Amino acid sequence: MPEPKSINLFHTDGASEKVYIVQLEDRPDGWAVTFQYGCKGGELTAGEKATGLTQAQALKAFDELLAAQCGKGYEPRTGQSVNLFYTEGSSDKVYSVQIEKRDDGWAVAFQYGRRGKALTPGEKGTGLRFDKALKIYEKLVGEKVAKGYTEAESGAVFTSSAFAGQVTGFQPALMNEISIEEARALGDDWLFQEKHDGERRGMKSDATRATYSNRRGLETGIQAPIDAAFARLAGVVGPMELDGEDMGGHVVIFDVLEHFMLRDGTFRERAAILAHLDKTIADLGLQEVLHVEVPVPASEFFARHEARIRERGGEGFVGRHADGLYQPGKPASGGNIFKVKYWEDATCRVTAGRDGKRSVGLEMLDAAGSWIEVGNVTVPANAAVPAVGSLIDVKYLYAYPGGSLFQPVFKCVRTDLPESDCDIGRLKFKSGPETRANEQDMAEDAAPGL
After folding, report:
1. What gap in Å lies between CA 206 and CA 222, rounded to an integer?
2. 3-class DSSP state for residue 397?
3. Is the model more confident about 5 or about 337?
4. Cβ–Cβ under 8 Å, residues 62 and 24
5. Phi/psi of residue 142, each to 5°?
6. Structure confidence by residue, pLDDT tens digits, 362-397
């Protein structure tokens, strides 16, 4: 059902600025489309395009009048935006949509995902006239409202980027994995940090603006409170480039690429800068959205931190050599940076996999003796695809409530175990509010056609 609305349009003609206001009104005798026009600061002339209309007729007349004025060069000064939320059972999702004015015209941008997590950005059109962008915007909003999304007063707003998808030059350092036993054997010339389970985020601030990059080095958006906090930090520290993990409601900063204190570029020096940033962020009161993972020597890390990270269900940790430089990309082997993940093991029964893929489905027994699907696992090329009904061992980082395994890795076929060993109660579940349902229903939030 349409709602009353009003859009103010402007057009500069020589030395004067013209105003045109298009309105959709709900009257006792039906819907009406009205307008006002004139020069800015002067008296406006009012008129009616049509009255006594049905809802459908009113929307069509409003769109026609808006399109006619936009075709003459009229457009708003600002765009529109809305944040929609959906909470039902274990689902807690957000969908944000914006109409943005850019150099080549108007664009419709959107972001979706779990509330409090990093949102996935996208676009449904660029280089558009405003009336065309508005129709796309309203269609997206209407589709979400039909699915049960509603507007809410609370919730972080997503800051979209007009440069989304452009190459930024950010090339993250990637790492190989080693065992925890290998990590424990290292000395204090190695510095350690907790590894966080978010999305890789390069953060750069210069004299003109802030830039946020994803793992592929493409520009992306970030939630508005983080953007505001980073701008305030840059206002004190000056231009800088940081490497971090976007956790949705906050960013964890774990490395420095550019900073006024950076000289030789070793991680020992970068670690000292991280400690300085941590104090500055605390002094500015920005800890809620900007966290710093300050590195500590191996002996201190294993004596004071490692056990606590494991006990609370952390993903793992990262080690960097104190003399190592920031090297983009992933080394073929070794390197001056590595990661340790806290893998767990599970025995599962094989179900049919996806057609054309070297993968099989996984299921486990719940307390009632029913088989519950827990995801899929890829079978490596050097291993035979196990038969449906056979038992296999997989390793995984953690499970979501309900049993869905996160990052399962095929290990081997088990012929020596009974099916009762496929006990879903043995899984290590992720701490926090994330659920299997939240993971599965994100796909439906992508805009149609994406």
Report:
1. 17
2. coil
3. 337
4. yes
5. -60, -40
6. 999 998 889 999 999 999 888 888 889 999 999 898
